Amino acid sequence: MTAYADLSAHFGRIAALSNAIGILQWDNDAIMPKGAAGTRAESMALLHVMSHDMVTDIRLGDWIAGAEADSALGDWERANVREIRRIWTVATALPSDLVEASSKAVSACEMRWRQARADADFAGLLPHLSEVLRLQREIGQAKGERLGLSPYDALLNDYEPGGRSARIDALFDDLAGFLPGLTEDALAAQARRPAPLEPDGPFAVESQKQLGLKMMAVLGYDFDRGRLDISTHPFCGGADNDVRITTRYDEADFARSMMGVLHETGHAIYEQGRPQAWLNQPVSRARGMSLHESQSLLVEMQACRSREFIGFAAPHMQAAFNGTGPAWEANNLWRRGTRVAPGFIRVDADEVTYPAHIILRYRLEKALIADQMTLAELPGLWNDGMKELLGIVPPNDRLGCLQDVHWPGGGWGYFPTYTLGAMTAAQLFDAACKAVPDILPAIGRGDFTPLVGWLGTHIHSQGSRYETDELLTRATGRPLDASVFKAHLRRRYASEA
């Protein structure tokens, strides 16, 4: 066998193992009984170590060098080798015992977080989260030394290959300067219009579920390769060709679950649209988390909070809950779905205030990884940041620093990709609508085929064939440009329409 064939076969086996880990992780987060936590943690740790050992196999260095020297490889093969080298370089920076320790710490912390969040008990989570942070610092240090990066940038690189905090600092500082004025203008424009009416609840969970399933089908989700379930924190997970999403329900507000389902369906359609011919190879993987978040936010924010989509969806909402009267009219539902109101919960935030939630988390996690603050200071500094950025202070830690699973789950360096994704979503949607003028009219008819077709061609089917900036440039004609996002926000929220 050639070096490339050896690499391809080896990473095919790694993909099979990763799929098993993905399903076990979904089960852990969605339906696993609490009593299984200890056993599951041991199983997950062993599988993570097995995967790590395969990625750091001593033979890979020679195989990678041999494949890189093979002039017969095509574009996809060369891109696959590039991605394999990236994965191998990072993985070989970590000893197996550190991988095992981190996996166990994350499993324990995630389980403790669920109760701590319910009880608003940060003190009860602190010992577990401290261990996760200690290990993340160690991982960031080890990877950073190998890559020539700071510990934080090394962690960020796992979620956003090639991403650097210096670039994010500039983008986020610019946004932090732009958002207060926009928020003021949006609130002023909003105040000149009648406040939206609230549809009468309660909204039965089963009815919400059926509405969510219907909207997933409208978007083009393939139910033969996935499913919808409930979890504490909504997510998209599973395995190749088994792409599962979760949501949570609030009988007082059906829109929370519906928009959450639409968001996660955006992730899922990306995963279901990855290139099948390369599915068990790194080159088929989604191109970083800013691209992944762009797909969920493009669906939820750009497409499904448009007047066109709400006009289509309003009769389905009415039918799901037997709604009648002005509160169920499309224009009222649109105004309700685009209302700007600073709030405590990130996943419920409107488009205008959402970036402030991310800027806060980004600044805090950078400081924590750099050991510039302690975890014990987190609740207070979180509340200070909320006051500075949004003018509100959470009444308890459940509505504050305990609301997200990312840090207990080991996802340090992930948060900035949400707002990078929002910027990318605006740029992609703008380019798609210019290239295919029927996209918005089709959405108004409940037809997402033109939009998903464009995304499939330019993003989903490309996997990791190109680096992020090149992929975005090929799709839109330019690398990430925050001005498109700003123009979208001002047009939707600060106009008099």
TrEMBL record:
InterPro entries: Peptidase_M32_Taq. This is Metal-dependent carboxypeptidase. Transmembrane segments: none annotated. Broad specificity carboxypetidase that releases amino acids sequentially from the C-terminus, including neutral, aromatic, polar and basic residues. Its EC number is 3.4.17.19. GO terms for molecular function: metal ion binding; metallocarboxypeptidase activity. The keyword Nucleotide-binding does not apply. Binds 1 zinc ion per subunit. One of its GO terms (biological process) is proteolysis. Coiled coil: none annotated. Belongs to the peptidase M32 family. Its cofactor is Zn(2+).
